[in-house]
Every structure is written in C-alpha cells, then in structure tokens.
Design brief:
Length: 413
C-alpha cells in the first residue's frame, strides 16, 4: 500500500514506533502525550546519535588535532550543514547555534538593536507573543530609551492586519513576530507580513519556535532577516537552538558574548573576532545536543515536512471538532489559520485542576498562562488548558483526551 492510501492514524502508528517514551504507561494508563508545544519527544535516532557521540566521539570541538576532537567537530559542523539545508539558508555562516529560541532573540535584541537604537525609535511586537519575544525587547527598550509598540489581535486570536500595517512606520527599527502562537495556535500570514515590512525597510525577526516543528521553513522564500527556533520543540535535545540571520547583519553586529572560540587572536590590547558564524558562538557549545539536533533534522526530512503538516492539519481539525462536542467547553483561540495547538476551558474548572485530573488518566496537557500572559489578559482569563499535537499523535489520543475531560466534568458536577 502506498503512503498516500494509508489513513492518517495508521501513518502515525509507523512514526510513533520511533519514539520509545510514548510506549509507557503513566498512572496506570498508556501515555497520551499532548504537550509537544512545550517540548517535543525525541525519536530513537536522536537519542542514539547523542549516546553515540558520548560513547565514542566526545571531545571538544574546533580546537584539537586529535582524532576524537576531529570526529566531534565533523559531527557538530555536519549538524550545522543539515540545519542550513533544512531551512534553506543561503550559507552555513548564517546558522548560529544557540541554546534555544530565547537566546536567539536576546542575541538579536542585544547585538543587532542595542547599539543602534535610542529615544525616538520603536520596537514593534504583537499581542500574541511568548514572553521570550516580549521581555528581551522590553530590556533593550529600557536600556536605550526606545519604545515598545504592540500590534493588536482580535477575539479569535488573529492579528488585526490593517492595524499592523498602520504601525509599520518609519521610526520602527525592527518587527519581532511569532510565526505560530504557542498559546492559541494561530498561524500568522508571515510571508505577507515580512513583505510589508521589507517594503518599508524594516527588518523582521520571526520567532519560529512553534513553526519549525510543524511545517517546511524556507528562510530565503520568507525573506526574513532573522528566524529563531529551539531544538527541543523539533524533536531534538534541550539546550539547543538556532538563530538564522542574514550574513550582512551578522557581519555588521558586534559579538553577543566574549570568550573562547569566537576569536582569531587575543592580546590585552585588542581582539580579532572569529569569522561567521563562530563570532557568535563563544565558549564550548552543547556538542552532543547539536549532533542530536542534526539527527532530528535527518529524521524529519526522512518523513517530509509537507507530509507532517498535512497529517497534523487533519488531526488538529479532528481534535477541535471533538473538543467542540464537549458540553461546557470554551475554546480559546479560534483563528481561521491554526496549527497543532488548542487552548480551552471546561466549565469553571481551574486549568491546573483539569491538568491534574487528566494526568491521573495518563493524559499529559499543559495548563496555565503558557508564558503568554498578555494573551491571557486579552481574553480576560488567567490561564487555559492546552492540548498540542505532533505527528506521532493520532485520533486515539484525541479520543482519550475527550474521555478524560468527560470524566473531569463528572467529578466537578
Ligand atoms: N517562542 C515561542 C513561540 C515558544 O512557544 C517558546 C516556548 C519560546 C519562544 C521559548 O523557547 P525556549 O526553547 O527558548 O524556551 N514555548 C513553550 C510552551 O509553549 N510551553 O513551554 C514552553
């Protein structure tokens, strides 16, 4: 049977077998993992690649003539090449390894913006952002006297585009915007937004933490200036991440941190910085993690991001319809274009209580404000329950979620 003839859930069964953690029971029930927006699970190929490095090749990178160091360096730099290919960056010099989306955004705020902005300049973000795409900009505004401006969203959790266009004024130094909202699942029309900003010569940073795991990303096609993402959300190890940045920007930016590896020559009088991307990679990196991230990229490419996106769209639609059928459910985040995430409330049950009851039934969801407190305020709530899917989930997982919610409802009424 060709893949195209397989039903969505049977395709997923093949993929699911690659994730050892998913075959366990939690609290006496087979695990249903619906928290991939917080952290994706790792396939055996990733776990094995990291273990292989630690067992066979562990040594520091870029600085040893001995065999282990060369092997470690080859594997580390090989991962960078895989990531370059995965996001279609023009050059490997544009792929800076970081500890995650958070560090990638802070790097841009401190190194690209801080030296160049001051009173009278604006940093534009949106109401949908994760705290990682708010607080670094607040810090740089405090440090420089620039102003933070926030583009509004509507009651469905969609950007109000006409208002966004009106905010793209000459005094905006950078637009920093999420690709996919982690709290609401809204997929922003990012390509069109980048085009509008570029027409006005405004650089754009895209927070792609929730984009990369779910759809094919082509940074050249998007035409963004910066694209930030995390390894652990794309089925790689924690403590890894990427900042994609146009080479011209990286050339013009001062280093973010000083230390080993980011230099060519040091004396007490002066220091010559290393070439790109190493100028932005001070200190010993997370070598095993990055090698694991390279394995995650291989794994995702072996399936194909378009297949993943198609499969997840069907499953997401199934989940939303199933949730809507539960009496007492209020969906938070009902944008026309959504991916992988659904937030909700059930009657007046506190989201943490709901999460605990679901956990007792082996169903893992995230509860609370999801590091997006302004989103919660916009809806007049303190938090939500959030179910988030990945390609290893299936309709049985959704059915178990619904059954667990019905049980919670019985307990509370
Ligand atoms: N941006 C978005 C859109 C995110 O969803 C997250 C993490 C981050 C940035 C920060 O990523 P980090 O890897 O640097 O921590 N989001 C979530 C979440 O939704 N639940 O836990 C973490």
């Amino acid at each position: 049977m060709s893949q195209a003839q397989l039903k969505p859930s049977s395709i997923s069964a093949e993929w699911r077998k690659d994730f050892p953690i998913l075959s366990q029971s939690v609290n006496g029930h087979p695990l249903v993992y619906l928290d991939s927006a917080a952290s994706g699970q790792q396939p055996a190929a990733v776990i094995d690649a990291v273990a292989h490095y630690h067992r066979e090749d562990h040594a520091n990178v870029h600085r040893g003539v001995h065999t282990l160091s060369q092997r470690a360096t080859d594997a580390f730099e090989g991962a960078r090449d895989k990531i370059r290919d995965f996001i279609n960056a023009a050059s490997r010099t544009e792929v800076v390894m970081t500890s995650g989306t958070t560090e990638s955004i802070n790097l841009v705020a401190q190194s690209f913006c801080r030296p160049r902005i001051g009173p009278g300049d604006k940093v534009l973000i949106t109401h949908l952002e994760h705290h990682a795409n708010i607080v670094p900009w607040q810090l740089v505004c405090e440090q420089t006297g620039a102003e933070l401006v926030v583009a509004p969203m509507d009651d469905q959790g969609q950007l109000e585009l006409e208002k966004l266009w009106a905010l793209l004024t000459d005094d905006v130094f950078i637009l920093a915007i999420g690709h996919v909202s982690n709290a609401l699942g809204t997929v922003n029309p990012i390509k069109g937004i980048i085009a509008e900003a570029r027409e006005r010569d405004i650089p754009v940073l895209v927070d792609g933490a929730q984009g990369v795991p779910h759809m094919a990303i082509d940074v050249q096609d998007l035409d963004c200036d910066f694209y930030a993402f995390s390894g652990h959300k794309m089925f790689g190890p924690t403590g890894t991440g990427v900042l994609y940045a146009r080479e011209a920007h990286l050339e013009s930016m001062p280093p973010y941190q000083g230390g080993g590896d980011m230099i060519l020559e040091v004396s007490f009088e002066s220091t010559v910085y290393n070439e790109l991307p190493y100028k932005f990679e001070a200190g010993t990196p997370n070598i095993g993690g990055v090698i694991g991230l390279g394995a995650a990229v291989d794994y995702l490419q072996s399936i194909g991001m378009q297949r993943i996106a198609d499969y997840e769209r069907d499953l997401h639609d199934y989940m939303v319809a199933a949730l809507e059928s539960v009496d007492g459910i209020r969906l938070i985040g009902t944008a026309a274009s959504k991916a992988s995430v659904q937030s909700f409330l059930l009657d007046d049950i506190h989201s943490h209580d709901l999460g605990t009851i679901l956990d007792h039934q082996g169903v893992a969801i995230r509860t609370g404000h999801h590091c997006a407190m302004p989103v919660m305020s916009r809806f007049g709530i303190s938090g939500t329950a959030r179910a988030s899917i990945a390609f290893y989930n299936n309709s049985d997982d959704v059915d178990r979620l619904i059954a667990a919610l019905l049980k919670a409802r019985q307990l509370f009424t």
